[in-house]
Amino acid sequence: MNPQPDTLAQLTEAGVAVWLDDISRERLVTGNLEMLKRDMHVRGVTSNPTIFAHALAQGSAYDEQVADLGLRGVSVEEASRVITTYDIRWACDVLRPVYDATDGVDGRVSLEVDPRIANDTTGKTFAEAKALWWMVDRPNLFIKIPATEAGLPAITQSLAAGISVNVTLIFSLQRYGQVIDAFLAGLEGAAAAGRDLSRIASVASFFVSRMDTEVDRRLDKLGTPEAAALRGKTAIANARLAYELFEQRFDSGSARWQALRAAGARLQRPLWASTSTKDPAFPDTMYVVELVAPHTVNTMPEATLRATADHGELRGDTIRGTYEESRRVLDRMESLGIAYDDVVQVLETEGVEKFEASWNELLETIRTQMDAAAKSR
Prior knowledge:
The protein is of the alpha/beta class. The protein is about 55% helix and about 10% strand.
């Protein structure tokens, strides 16, 4: 019998960095993250407000720290920073060997700024990014900044200050182009300040499955055979066209990029986020095996990670060579009366709102636990 192929190793060899889209104190205490790094090729971690809200609401791993923070009279807002940065710092230390072995390409752990300031234009996002960068104090940290229009200047400012950035909540190709511009401007600012560009990293996180969820909902309302034939196709097409833009903007013919590269700059890799399938009619590894190309990251919940390891079937590079067909998919969507610009704006707005709700849930959980600890003393 032929041995079971190591699909996650094959992904890594194909240039797709396998990251875990989850973190919790329990994962750290039990050594689960260390095990996933060792046995399942996990080379990075992403977190978000929803992940932390879920982690705080489960089990007792945070009880002692929450009680101590309450005893010290720390505010709920500050407690949230202390708790989340503690986990992120620990995860950075777990993945530091990966960071060192890859010369800083992987081994990265992402922590998001307060999503309630995603549309702030007064400089709060940059201030928050600096505060989190100082608090975690690890070179393999990524600060996650939403790719809202208001967030673009903060991305540039953070990179110029030497802060590595995970640009999150990207849905549209137009916005992705603006993210690349913000990245290049940030590196130019860092170079002008005399910073070592080789130590500054960034990824651009394209949210994948949420597009199918929104578009398919609209297709189902149409109820036509043409609409049904398009279900589950637009998200992958959109991501593939994002990769085409990545190739174009970081091409050897781009004088702007080549000047930065000559100064030591690293590529801003596309990262595929939201890669668990939400519709049981679709294969559970669809957003992994259909988005394989060099210089990418795929961050997965553990269930998707294990599904890929168990039965994911790779077919080599599944992005390059698909661009014309991908454009046809989005053209067919438009021809059915579903406007691309409306879809991506709805997704961005909802994405920020969902993370805001999760952040408020996190704060309420901490408040409740601190109050309970105080009453038990």
